[in-house]
Each structure stands twice: as structure tokens, then as C-alpha cells.
DNA sequence: GCTTGACCCTGCCCCTAGGGCAGGGTTCGA
DNA sequence: TCGAACCCTGCCCTAGGGGCAGGGTCAAGC
């Protein structure tokens, strides 16, 4: 009659799995024939299909064992629960697909949507990729330190970016990275930066937008995050 | 700056998983601070999110390691493949859900749709659950032995069931199970069975519908698959 | 009768992707 | 200054089998 291999084919399961179920006590060992081969009956086949159905649904074998001789009400409740889990897992896999698609480009996986929009804006303005990367890494650090604060800060920063003068300063500061440190434009730029800050402060909404400690960390974390021109500029702005 | 716990929260991963990625060489070990704590940078965060995204998509860590420093074209191809796998797995889970729903009742999980329809027909005719169970188990054994033959046999059997006389005999034979072995109706039934077989044979389409060896196996596999009345009936039919 | 390929047996070690716990040191906020 | 919350290494554990070794068995064809 039924050998282990045939039973395995019937149930869509490997021979090894069947032996495993015997070991775990899920499926009773059948009688053996004269040469020691296991000989199965239709009842084994029925039980095995039940085991396989639950196992393929991700139910741990220990739980399968319980369910095999649970009363119908318990079984019905358990099946509803398992079905729910399956639904969840399908939703998870779908989310995984969505994220996977974003892996090939863009920063949306690493920062909040608001920050990602901000980075896109910078790109639209013609900001260098180097600067964008420094920004991104800074925001990542801020978000890990405190997502709530980061959310507030990005909102402020985006308001700031609405100011044409600030945008101009941002771009010029970005361009200054490559200037020679004795470039005469640095002094002029430093003046405009100071003036702009003074103007903001006079309007009394003077909160520091960037936590300077964090900004420094972000700068340290990347090679090429500063330059001789920027160092000089910083000294000029400080006075 | 970034401790392992914060990094883990940011990436939606456990601390243990991060240490595991270090061991496997997926994520570079960061510098340690004076007390031996790991201190991470934004670059670690970016890489970790990539790892997590792939790992959540079910990519084995060894493969993740390869993909992390693959060229963009290879990566694009790999992502397409992984996405395909994900789609397959979603389809599998959906199938698992469908099968799970059938676990609570019915025989459709265990036999082919044709056999299941046949069993439903028997139920509709008022055949006893005991007989239906014997049929089901017989068909399971036949299907495990040879699905193709079983498909042919069930087609023949269903044709047979279209014959009102055969149906009547089937039902009476079923009912006879509980009769006393000396019941006078047994002899009459045996006659009708013999006549019916004779009629079929004369119409020259005389193929055995049931493989007798298999039928016997099916009968053996179940307790209560025979009775004193049936034993007597068998002797009467044989002559 | 003999061989050959497909089965079957037990027993052993291996894998993935971490989880859990022990036993100890560190940092931070009140 | 103290307790809670972190962090460190090291070790063992898990599910669900896969793979292989080393050996016995069965069925078909020659």
C-alpha cells in the first residue's frame, strides 16, 4: 500500500518532513512491513494534509499538534486567528515590495517625507550633491536623536527656504566650498550672512534652527564636509 | 552620537540583529567610545536601512552582503528578481489562506474535485456517512497509487451513478450494513446485484470499475468497513 | 538469475536569523 | 547619589527541515 515516498508526493511534502512530523509527534508512526518500511493508510494521508495545510500557513509545529485534536470550536477560532495573521503577513510583504522599489534611488527610505521633499527642493535649486548629502546625513542624525524635534526643525527650515534671500545665501555658501580661501568674495558673503541673521533676530523670532552640536557631528561624519574656504568663511562670520 | 539602541529604533530592527549583521560582515563595525560602546554615523544608518529593506524582503543575508556592493545594473536586475519572488510568496500565502478555509469541513483538501463532487452527490442521495468515508479513503489510496488511473475511474464511477438501478443498489447495499446476517432481504439483494452485473457484462463494456485489491485495502484501513451482513452478502453474490 | 536504478532505513551534523540569559560595566535624569 | 535604562561579550537555543553516510530492498529488464 502507501509508502512514505508516495504519501509525500500526494501531500506535496518531502519525505524528510514526514519523518520530522513523526519525531515531533504530529503524525502517528504507521505499522512497518516485513522489511521495516513504513506503510501508511488513508487516515495518515488525511492527517498529513491537515498538518501541511497548517504548516504552510506558517503555524508552528507545536501549535499544529495542539490543533490537530482540538474541538471544532477551538479549531474554528484558531483558524480565524491564523487567517488574520496570514493577512498581516501578506500586507507586510506588500510593504516590503514598496520599500524594495525605493531602494534603487532617492532618499525616501532614510528620512521622513518632509525631509525628502526638502532634499528634492534643494536639488531643484541646483544645490550640489555634496551639500545635499551633508543635509541628508544631518537630518538622519537628527531623526535618530529625536524624531519629534526633527519634525519641528524641518518645518522651520522649509519656511526659511521660502525666503529668496536665504535661498540665495544657501546657494552661494554651497558654491563657496570650492573657492580659494583668499577669495575676496568670501568677505562680501560673510557680510550678507551676518546681515541676514541680524534681520531675523530683530524680528524677534530668534530660535536656532540647527542644533550646532548636531550640525558639527553631521559634518564630521562625512569626508569633504568642510573646505579651506568654508573654514575661512566661518571665521569671517564669527567676526 | 548614535548608540546601537537608537540606531536600532531608527531602522526598525533589534539591537541583536545589528550585532548579527556585524558578525556576518554586512555592516562595518563602527568606532568605539572610551567605554567600549559602538558609536554610529549617518552612513551606518543608511547602510542598515538598505540591509533591513532587503532582509525584510526575504533575501538571505549572504545575498544581501553581495548586493550591498554590487554595481547599479546588477542591483537593478536583482531587485527585479526579488520583487518577483515576493509576488510569488504573496500568491502562495493567498493559496494557503484558501486551503486553510477548507480545513474546517469537507473533503476537497484530500481528493480531486471530481471525487469531491461525487462524495457530495452521495450525500445528496442519503448515503450513510460511514459509506461516504469508506469511499473517500478508497479514492485517497487510489490517487496516491496512480492519480491518472484514479481520474479515469472516477469518471466511470460517476457515469455509473447516473444509472437509477445502480443508485438503488448502492443505497440498499449501504443500508444492508446493519441488517442481521440472516435477514431474508440479503438473498433478494444478492440476486439483483448479480442481475445488474450480468446486464452490464452483456452490454460488452465490461471493465472492472474498482480495482479489487485497492478496494480491499480501503476496507481494511477503516474500522467498521465491513459487517456480518456484508460478509454474508458477499458470499451470496459470489454464488 | 542478475543487475541497475529507484526506494527505504537510521543517525549524524548543518543551516538561517536571530532570541534569551548570564554576568558585568556605563550613563543619564531626578 | 541612586535607580532605570543602556551597553558589552559569550554562550546556548530554536524551527523546519537539508544533506550525507552507510546500509538494506524492490521491481523491471536482459
Mean pLDDT of chain A, to the nearest integer, reads: 87
What is the chain-wise order of helices and strands of chain A? HHHHHHHHHHHH
Helix/sheet category of chain A: mainly alpha
Between the first and last Cα atoms of chain A, what is the distance in angstroms? 95 Å
Q: Strand content of the residues of chain A, in percent?
A: under 5%
* Total count of helical runs of at least 4 residues of chain A: 12
Write the layout of secondary structure elements.
Two copies of one chain form a homodimer.
Chain A: H1 4-11, H2 15-23, H3 42-56, H4 61-68, H5 72-101, H6 113-125, H7 129-145, H8 147-161, H9 164-176, H10 185-202, H11 212-220, H12 228-238
The first copy, chain A, binds a DNA duplex (30 and 30 nucleotides) through residues 3-5, 14-17, 19-20, 24, 35-38, 55, 60-62.
Domain HTH merR-type (chains A, B): 1-70
Keywords (chains A, B): DNA-binding
InterPro entries (chains A, B): DNA-bd_dom_put_sf, MerR-type_HTH_dom, MerR_fam
Question: What do you see in this structure?
Answer:
Chains A, B: Keywords: DNA-binding. Chains A, B: InterPro entries: DNA-bd_dom_put_sf, MerR-type_HTH_dom, MerR_fam. Chains A, B: Residues 1-70 form the HTH merR-type domain. Chains A, B: This is MerR family transcriptional regulator. Chains A, B: GO terms for molecular function: DNA binding; DNA-binding transcription factor activity. Two copies of one chain form a homodimer. Chain A has 239 residues and is mainly alpha-helical. Chain A folds into two domains: 4-101, Multidrug-efflux Transporter Regulator, Chain: A, Domain 2 (Orthogonal Bundle), CATH 1.10.1660; 107-238, no CATH class. The first copy, chain A, is built from twelve helices and no strands. Chain A has helices spanning 4-11, 15-23, 42-56, 61-68, 72-101, 113-125, 129-145, 147-161, 164-176, 185-202, 212-220, 228-238. In chain A, helix 6 (113-125) packs antiparallel against helix 7, helix 9 (164-176) runs antiparallel to helix 10 (185-202) and helix 10 packs across helix 12 (228-238). The longest helix of chain A is centred in the middle third of the chain and has 30 residues, at 72-101. The N and C termini of chain A lie far apart (95 Å). The model of chain A is unreliable at 204-221 (pLDDT under 50). Chain A binds a DNA duplex (30 and 30 nucleotides) through helix 2.
